[in-house]
Amino acid sequence: MSEEEKKQQNIDQELEKSETSEESQAKSHGEILKEQICEGKKIYTLSKSSVLISSLTAGLELGFSYMMLCSVFFHFSDSFSEDTLFKLIALVYPLGFILVVLGQSILFTEQTSLLTLPVLNRKHSLMSLLRIWGLVILGNLIGGWLIGLVLFWIGPQLGIFEAETVVTIGEHVAHFSLPVILVSAILAGWMMGLLSWLVTSSKDTVSRIIIIFLITATMAFVGLHHSIIGNIEVFGAYLLGTDISLGRYLWVQSTALIGNAIGGAFFVALLKYRAFVNNVN
C-alpha cells in the first residue's frame, strides 16, 4: 500500500470514529464533515432526472424571494431612497432560501461545497463532480427562467410591483464590472458554503432558519452576487428593459456562477477538509 493510500485509509478511519454527540453538546468538526460527505455522496447516487427535477424545484422556489424583494422595493419606493430600498429588501430575501434548504431541494450554491467533499475524499472523480454541477446549474437556471416569466406577468397584474421595478433591480445587479462581480460572487459562494456547513452543525429547525436568515440577509444587504436568484434578476432586466443585452446577461451570469463555485469549493470545502486532514497522522 502506498503512502497516499495509507493516508486516505487513516482519514476514512478518523471519519468513522465520529460519533453522534450528546444532545447538549455541539457537533465536532469531524462529525459535521462526515455528515456533509455522506449527504454529498447521496446526491451522486440519485438519477439524472431526479437531480434535474430537484434543482429545477430549487430555482422555482427562489422565485418567492424575488417576488418579495420586488414587492418591498415597489411598495416602499415613495417612502425611501433607492439606496435604502436595496438594503431594506434584505429582510425578505431569505424566504426562498429557507424554503429551498429546509425543503432539501438541490441549490447549486448551497450544494457546491457538499458535492466537492466526496471528490476531496476520493469517493468520486472530478469529472463526476462537473457533470452533476452541470445538471444542478441547468435545473436551477430553468427553474429561475420559468418562475421569472410567471412573476414578470403576474406582478403588474396583481399590483405588487411593476415592470420598471424588475428592470431597476436587474440593472443594479448587472451594472458592476466583471472583476467586481467575480469577487462578489466568490464571497457569496463562500457564505453559502458556510450556510450548508452551519445548517449541518445545528440540531433543530429554528436554529437552521436563523442561520439561513442571517447569512442570506447579510448577502442581500451588502449586495453580493448570487448566481441563481441573480439569474432571475438580470434575466428580468434583459427581457423588460433596454440596457441589458443578451451578451451582458450571459457574461454576468457566467461570472457569478464561476465565482460562486470558487467560493464554495475552495474557501469552504477544501479549507474545512484540509483542516481535518492535517490533523490526521
Automatic annotation (TrEMBL):
List the InterPro entries hit by this protein, alphabetically.
Aquaporin-like, For/NO2_transpt
Q: Per its UniProt record, what Gene3D superfamilies does this chain match?
A: Glycerol uptake facilitator protein
> Is GTP-binding given among the entry's keywords?
no
Q: Which GO terms describe its cellular component?
A: plasma membrane
What's the domain of life for this entry?
A: Bacteria
- GO function terms (MF aspect): formate transmembrane transporter activity
Location in the cell: Membrane
- Keywords, in A-Z order: Membrane, Transmembrane, Transmembrane helix
Q: How does it sit in the membrane?
A: Multi-pass membrane protein
A Pfam family found in this protein is Form_Nir_trans
Residue spans crossing the bilayer = 51-76, 88-108, 129-154, 174-197, 209-229, 249-271
Region Disordered, as annotated, extends over 1-28
Question: What name is this protein filed under?
Answer: Formate/nitrite transporter family (FNT)
